[in-house]
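Cont'd.
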Amino acid sequence: MRKSWWKILAVVLLIYTFTAGFLIHIPHIGNLKETARNLFFHVPMWFGQITLLSISLVYSILYLRTPDLKYDIFAVCFAKTGILMGILGLVTGSIWATYTWGSPWSNDPKQIGVAIALLIYFAYLVLRNAVPDIDKRAKVSAVYNIFAYFIYIPLIMILPRMVESLHPGGKGVEGNPGLNGADLDANMQLVFLPAVIGWTLLGAWISTLNIRLELIRDKNLLNAE
Amino acid sequence: MKTIFALLKKDLLLELRQQHSFYGILLYVASTIFVLYLSLSNPEPDVWNALFWVIQLFVCVNAVAKSFLQESRGRMLYFYSISGAREFIIAKLIYNIILMLLMSMMSLGLFFLLLKNPLDKPLVFLGIVCLGSISLSLVFTLLAAIAAKAQQNAALMAILGFPLIVPQLLLVIRLSKAAFGEQFRTGAVLNLTGLIVGLDIMVLILSIILFPFLWKD
């Protein structure tokens, strides 16, 4: 019970997100109309993704410092959930774009940015499959993961600031990778923050489940010494 | 410092003696550009720019891939005994930069020869080409090391590298438009150049930090 408080928190926050997110009064701006409620689902995916990928990065660094296969499993499971959240973020974004921008894909710099990000992390998984030796796989993929993360962050932080975009916060140099938090309606902020925390916790929960599964699968390897 | 120089000299000497690899890449560049010449003899400036950089990308994958793949296991062990990992990667980085600069200059010459010259400021473009080829070779050197460690061929390197090179490639293509006579906001050119140089420095530092982990078995 003491260890699972954050799982309960995740469930409570998500229930809150799903009920309040659909029920509260939101301001109608332009052609957004009711689709603005997607904010509680689309945006938290990206917060979750960045958080999970950062955790994955930390475990990759830890692995390079002390080569323990557990760290490798942690790193890959967090990265996988990060990829999952990235895909969900892309899909929810496309659905949103269908109703506001007119089409699911409009070659917007932000859509391109996240598509590249997904390719980078798919390449991480391909690399892992390409190396049969477990220790070597762990080491090589840890190095790639660190390298990829430090390219990925400039990609989503710099590129969107350079070009015009349909996405909120996309006005040249004053732009912002996502949206400017101060622009958010006070009512929506009440749901937005819990939604971000809830989805991120859910992502971490999925990762830990996956990690437990992997640890059991590789039990013999891990306890070999 | 002396080790770096010695390793660099060894790579360059090897290149001069076994010229087949150098000429191999050169032929690759020449035939690709010749195919382009046959398929479109007078491309628009934008197309010219994009084609040039895509060709550079492929040339870089081919040129840099062999820098690690050519080293046999035994020879790597030998290098390990005589030099540190840092010296080794720095020597490789410098060697790849020299090789890539040479290749870019050749392909630029061939582009001028076969696909005309749509540039307003050729000298500016020359500078951008140098910057771009340095960026390309820096990123692909570490990826070549990863691919070599995974005992894979250049195909894996392409899979790993293409998404990672996109930020720099987009920045360089954007910057190249300055040489085609496009007017930029004041300071934007400097901004872009600064960004590319910043990314290069970051990749350089990451390579130097991360390579020692790849090296030891």
